[in-house]
Amino acid sequence: MNREAVGRRYDAMLMQRARERSWAVLQDIRQRMQPGIDEAEAKAMAADIFTAHSVQRLWHPPIIRIGANTTKTYRQRSHPDVRLGENDIYFIDLGLVFDGHEGDVGDTFAVGDAPALTACASAARSLFDEVACAWRNDGLSGRALYDVASERAQAMGWRFNHAIKGHRLGDYPHSVHKGGDLGTLEGAPSPGLWVLEIQIAHPTKPYGAFFEDLLVAPGAD
User: Fold this and answer.
1) How far apart are the first and last CA of the chain?
2) Which of 25, 54, 93, 216 could join 63 in a cystine, given CB atoms 3.0 to 4.6 angstroms apart?
3) What is the pLDDT of residues 15-46, one digit of tens each?
4) Is the four-CA dihedral 179, 180, 184, 189 of positive or negative sign?
């Protein structure tokens, strides 16, 4: 099985464009996240922003986690009735389609005066950057990338979510190609096809952070 198979419509430039447009949508959602909002309200607000950005479709439902729910994976249900506090943390995970090509982006943000939460969000980004750098410089396999992520998270003092293993993207729907998880890929992932997902949590306190982006060639950021 070719785990990097794509459809006849696949275009690397359109993949990069879908990535850029997905990040623009995420930043617009971030600008409208205010204390007091709950996750259902945030998703409804996000739907309006999808329309404004001419999102073609969703390839996975938007995920917005607030407070203690930031420790949960995409398969776990949020605790209900959690609202964004004055000093709090949340993350956004979007799977959007533009021009028949998929984007998948995620980031975490702290609000108010919350230095520990800000540090957690920054740590997820830093860990992503370290692992992506190891991929670019050392040509590591997908499996090895997640070994690096786990080791570095522990060294940084965070609990690493081993259930998150990254995945394929492509021309919609990428699922027909059955690429599987990045964390089980024995070879080095090709640029522009694989999403590296990072999720960490405080070892004892109920908050965490998430970051994901497409692994792209040097200079494509």
Assistant:
1) 30
2) 93
3) 999 999 999 999 999 999 999 999 999 999 99
4) positive
Q: Nearest to residue 160, comparing CAs of 197, 187, 189, 129?
A: 197
Predicted pLDDT of residue 199: 98
For the chain, what is the domain count?
Answer: 1
**How far is Cα of residue 183 from the mean position of the Cα atoms in its chain?**
15
Per DSSP, the three-state class of 146 is helix
Exposure on the CB side of residue 216, measured as CA atoms within 13 A: 19
96 DSSP β-pair partners: 58, 103
Q: What is the CATH number of the domain that holds 98?
A: 3.90.230.10
Q: What are phi and psi of 216, to 5 degrees?
A: -125, 160
User: Are the CB atoms for 88 and 174 separated by under 8 Å?
Assistant: no
Does the predicted TM-score (pTM) go above 0.85? yes
Indicate whether 2 belongs to any domain: no
**Other CB atoms closer than 10 Å to residue 57's CB: what's the count?**
13
**Domain span holding position 135:** 12-214
pLDDT value at 220 more than 80: no
- CA–CA dist 27, 24 (Å, integer): 5
What CA–CA distance (Å, rounded) separates 117 from 155?
A: 18
Residue 108 contacts residue 124 (beta carbons within 8 Å): yes
Domain assignment present for residue 174? The answer is yes
Of 214, 210, 190, 194, give the one whose Cα is nearest residue 18: 214
Q: How far apart are CA 64 and CA 74, in angstroms?
A: 10
Structure tokens at 179: 């690429």
